Amino acid sequence: MDNRQTYISIITKRLTYLQKEVENFNSLNLTDINVFAENFYRDLFNLIGFTFTNTNFENNNFAHIDLIDTANKQAIQVTAQNDNTKIKDAIDGFFTKPENKQYKLQILLISKDAKEYKTKFGKNFNHKEDVLDIKRLLAIINDISEIDMLRELADFLNKNILTERYKTECSEVETIMALIEHLSKDENRKLSDFSDNVDPEFKIYQRFSDHSDFITTQYKELLSVYQIPLFEASKSIDSVTSLKVSNYLKDESDIILSKENNNPKLALHSLVELFYGKLSSNGVKFDKQAIKFYLLDELIKCNVFPNK
To answer: Which pLDDT value is given to residue 196?
Structure first.
């Protein structure tokens, strides 16, 4: 998957997730999420070249709209409703002010799809272009050619829309993923003091003597960042689950080590990529260094690349 496809995939998943979340909250009359959506979409549109502000923070009274871009003469009403009356009221209300006649007005539907409207809205309002649902918004984003802009949008959505990863793996893998997920969160990290004389199992200096410096250096560099969160996360794992996880790691890592001709450096890289791929299957970004530390820690415990 190339970078463009990766970014579009993330953007599509995040906006689709938010659309369903807004729809479900509104079905329960929990509409606070709509207020969040106004500022969220303000910031999203501003990433693609606009300068929208939220009219709730303006001194002027901008009735019937939520976002205004005075430089580009654009106005947007953000709404969870897609009925004709709602749209017509917004159009008629906004253009009652003579100073708004130079603006282009659009309706952004944040939970429902646009209809094939039969109403003649007037004011040069073309519902096929000016009623934006999430599908139409995604089509606009997909037409962006600048890869850096797509990356920025994907990063913005990753930071602002946190989705739950679907659990589709066996319980052993899910446990590993939960541990790494805990390590990947900044708020769970606490620096620890440790001795520079870190001496992983002596077998590393015998079995992997050609790569022992690499293994110990990597472990030392990551230990102070990830030692405490791994300890805290591991406390929730019972002995039976721990045994199942260790057996899984032994089997999986031994297969990969054989494929890499007993080269632990290459095999470790392949294991990191394997778990990174599993963790990121929903488009969620995880910390590769956290994955590496977890696997190095398990290597020292002989659960990764076990002794023969």
So the answer is: 41
